[in-house]
Model the fold of this input.
Amino acid sequence: MSPAFPSFPTSTSRRTTLAAALCLLALTGTGAARAQDSIQIGAVLSLTGANATVGEDVRRGVLLGIEHVNAKGGVLGKKLNLIIEDSGGNPTTALSAARKLATVDKVPVVMGEYSSGITLPMAQYLVKEGITHINIASSSTKVREIGATSFSLVGLENFGNAFSAKDTWELGLRKVALVAPNNAYGQGVAHGFRQEFEKLGGKIVSEVLYTAGQSTYRRELQQIARANPDGYVYTAYGQESAVLNREAEELGLRKVPFYAILMSMSLSDTAPAIANGQIGMELGSLRGATGKAYGEAFAAKYKEPPKTAYTGYGYDAVLLTAAAMEKTKSTKAADVQAALRDIGSAGFEGVTGNIQFDKDRQRVDPPYDKLKFENGKLGPR
Done:
């Protein structure tokens, strides 16, 4: 993989006025003529809202994947073209975006979303329509039940909970307070982590499932602090996590270890001075020589390294889609799905490591990392 890729025009679809949409078509050259000359795929990402930092990081990853595929000759002799829809971190908006991609743009593949509570209804619609859904970020175990045309590149919570519980135990924590969002993802973490931690002999002395979008979480933090835990285990979305972390610092809760599940998500919007010293776990991001080359290519193009672990999963989704289309010599959704099952059975070497699917099209043996935030950045510990 070359660290530098040639640039090419990419269309990005948003909710716009008719005039703005026409202007966008004129500027990017999208439309009927372009559609005939290219193969369209779609993505629904959180480019605004609480998870915008992660969404932008993933957007960069998928665009880098598009560039790489097209630099290698495209797919079936045509350029691969990405249509991105912004969910705004809202399930209703995400569903509308998926409907547009399926019925107007008629794409065979849609990647996304991020939050499990948004991914689930969106992907269920796509499956109903026979569209290929590729999950690049959501880890709720309910993802397994979406349906036969949905594929996951990330590990689901059962893997992540077992990893984080074992890691927390090995750090010497025995009585912890747990904080997670009150949605499909957070409920799964709260239940799964408790189950795994208690198997090891640990105890959850206090638990809070927080409500998204609050301006303060001081009351919730004070509530769990009363249990005098020897550490806090939390997972939270970017902007909400920034509030939680700032107020935990102000309340003096950081005197004991603060362990983050999915660190790049939980710290994406937190000030470095406040994040400093936090420990936790993360989805395994870049693996081997392929992952290293991708990281170099990302930094060369965007003048900074990836901010989160999710960007590599977006990139892998693009390359896996292209490989499936080439394998089946078709862009029809059903053909792509059959090829994905075949490739997933044999294994696909991506920047996030070897990707294999189980019988339910979920990634097996997903990678995870043990990290610490130090000197302004995440690194291994």
